[in-house]
Structure prediction request, 104 residues.
Amino acid sequence: MAQDVPDAADDKGMPMPQKEWIANVHGHEVRVVNTWTGGTRLYIDGDCRDRNHGLFAPTWRRWLSARVVQGDPSSDLVEVHLVALLQVKARIFVNGSFVAGDAG
Prediction:
């Protein structure tokens, strides 16, 4: 489920709306963060692994992806699918299986 995080700030200290989705993958924290001005970022254990500054995704599509262990092609693949029109929804998949995020 997404969390609205109202106290995020941009680089000028101005508050901006933010949504987060979090999953645990074999002991690794996977976090997806979306802000109006900063786009969408995929963090694994606090390290930003992918980002997308797109504003609209009218249908569900793969938006971000990264391996849990950076540089290891046999490591679990994390993919974030996103739809963004009037609101942003995200789903986190690991090796093609849904693990967290919005249901519909």
The two ends are 11 Å apart (CA to CA). The beta strands are 3-4, 18-25, 28-35, 39-44, 47-52, 57-67, 77-84, 88-94, 97-101. The chain has a mean pLDDT of 87.
